[in-house]
Amino acid sequence: MRRLNKHTPRDNKAKTFINKREAIKEAGKPWTARPDEELKIMFGKGMPVSRLTVNFERTKASD
Prior knowledge:
The structure is a single chain. By secondary structure, the chain is mostly helical. 54% of the residues lie in helices and 0% in strands. It contains three helices and no strands. The protein has helices spanning 9-23, 33-44, 49-55. The longest helix is centred in the first third of the chain and has 15 residues, at 9-23. The mean pLDDT is 75.
């Protein structure tokens, strides 16, 4: 009898999501006034989103 693969693509996707949440400390958390204002200033000065995500420990999709 063939052994079934225990890891489905859905399982892998969930693990990847959990790993990202652990690596990006502020992911999913609400913005407070101070970092939100800093974000507006830095973005207005032309800082790339990729650098903003690192600076604020967020993902590109942060609300």
